[in-house]
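ERR on first pass: missing label on line 2. Operator R.T. fixed the label and resubmitted. Corrected input:
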Amino acid sequence: MNPRGCARIASGHPWIYRQDVVSGPEADARTGGPTLVAVLDERRRPLAHATWAAQSPVALRILQRQSEKKPLPELMALVAERFEVALAWRQRLALDRDALRLVHGEADGLPGLFVDRYADAAVMQTTSVAMDAARPALAEFLKKRLGVRIVVARDDGSARDFEGLPRVREIAAGGGATEVVYRLGENRLQADLLTDSKTGGFLDQADNHAVVAALAPPGARCLDAFTYHGGFALALARRQGAVLATDEDAQAVARAKANAARNHLSNLEVRQANAFDLLRSLEADKQHFDVVVLDPPALAKRQAGDHAAFRAYQEMILRGLRLTKPGGLAVPCSCSGRVSRAQFDELVSAAAAQSGQSLQILERRGAGRDHPELAGVPETGHLKCWILRVL
Amino acid sequence: MNPRGCARIASGHPWIYRQDVVSGPEADARTGGPTLVAVLDERRRPLAHATWAAQSPVALRILQRQSEKKPLPELMALVAERFEVALAWRQRLALDRDALRLVHGEADGLPGLFVDRYADAAVMQTTSVAMDAARPALAEFLKKRLGVRIVVARDDGSARDFEGLPRVREIAAGGGATEVVYRLGENRLQADLLTDSKTGGFLDQADNHAVVAALAPPGARCLDAFTYHGGFALALARRQGAVLATDEDAQAVARAKANAARNHLSNLEVRQANAFDLLRSLEADKQHFDVVVLDPPALAKRQAGDHAAFRAYQEMILRGLRLTKPGGLAVPCSCSGRVSRAQFDELVSAAAAQSGQSLQILERRGAGRDHPELAGVPETGHLKCWILRVL
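pass 2 clean. output:
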């Protein structure tokens, strides 16, 4: 470990890049080499235990810092130990839902491992060579420890490309249907954990669904312009007002419609539409809503550059504000890691200035407490959900 | 109004500085001149209605932007109208307390006016020449509209110096004791609205008291090192663990002790101590807590410069982290407007790196929803309350 790498470990960052590694094993868990290694400084003093990747840009993911020489732990023993801590914390949260994140990678001391629970099923994701190699053991561990019927591996995200890992999705343990029905507050939602987006749902927003719905007045007329499976819309529909939910994706629309029916929410209308086109057309029709939720997929990924993405967010927020009644709530969100919280504040201020409306910031929320962020590692906490009120 | 002032109005900022005013009345509400003025651009086109201050650095506080010439409203009619909107919103919040902010100045469209309710009393603060001149009318209005027994004016803050207004505190309407007992959740607290700090309590933290207490495990051993009247400590003591609360100020300590007794919380110990000395001595004694709350008065005001203030915050957070058990919560706060949310994030990360602990950021909270921030005006939202969990 060169001095820069040593400093990075001392600072508590869990990722050490290849260029800071002076020497390491030629093979890793993927090629018959070690899963865990002891990290030493240039004078061979012990610094940490870490998982090892021989090829990917992030060479080391720190599992524990230490100044004394200690035997390397066994990966699965460490997983089992930290899993209990993560699980106990989630139990203490007493969330009003049966779908939640149980392990949030680095932020739960388990770099490269993500575990979600959905009712009687679990979904795991591995984003490091070490965790990838441990997939069969992890799947069996989760099935047994959680008593779930099935464990689905959703190792089909872009984070895997970065590590040089193949994209795969499969039933990793157990069996039966990959479609599950899970509960968020009063609502039940269906998702296919193997084929729908992300791990089936976007659980990081689940608490925000409930908080926004609780702030909506009874009978509120609501718009949820990027609804996916209906998360915000279903929660808002419980307030008994007319709710319009749209998504560009036909499959998401079908799921959202089925979820509305499942919960007997006939006041929730789901339509297929491009959100930006929809916002423009609602504005042209002089429509106004008590609550406007805008929770797009990461615009900053899809656009040519950051500038275009920022413009897209600002336009989205501006159009949302124009559709919000005085006294109503606008809830713009961003899941893009390339837009910082401070930058999102600037986008909101700029949109408010442009719309000519005075705007209260009631809360700047992020992901739920089951998706904690690791201090110093903003990559572990990208979700922004601002609750605004138009004066 | 010069072009810079016009641009500022167009951007929605409610404060226009003197140097952007081309010409205005020589007198203002304090000296027999107008309370409200019509703001025009250099071609004498209407831009806004605003309150006027002939001498203070902020010359104009925008009440409403408009592009057509309209008759000037009467200040008290505008106050009455906007007060109803502010009140209706607070009622919808259904807060679990009888002390709350009813009017939050600029963020409620009433620049220079702040109103808090405490049980059967109200406290008002005016920080502009126009609102200051309207104090008798405002006090009578509040007494009648809210049906309160007494209205106290706490016009003794530093914001008044900036406007060239004298510092005063007085009974502005009604009468009887200025000491009141108010309710925050399960607890009752006593404060003297005329002589205690701020408006008697620090109501912007009230929701955070409840949220932190709800996250504390039953029986949690807790430290509240800047307790004032016991806000966090009383809420935490409801979890039945041993709670230590300290404050440097003897009068605050007496109040916190009386509040502990009033709520029969014999598990809450209140001591007079300098928080930094206390943190050092608890660390030397190897004490550890399940919850450590650090909610100091604005350190950035008290220190020679920002650098020293930042160092003080960082030291405070570091020492708090060292006193927090693994799995425990650390809750550092800052009410200093000179420390941005992004800077507070940096202070937390730096303290985590220095302490060698891994730290989850569970929530980045601010003031309660009864203290909204006006988008684009960070001065209206200075409170930061981060809920951290030590891994």
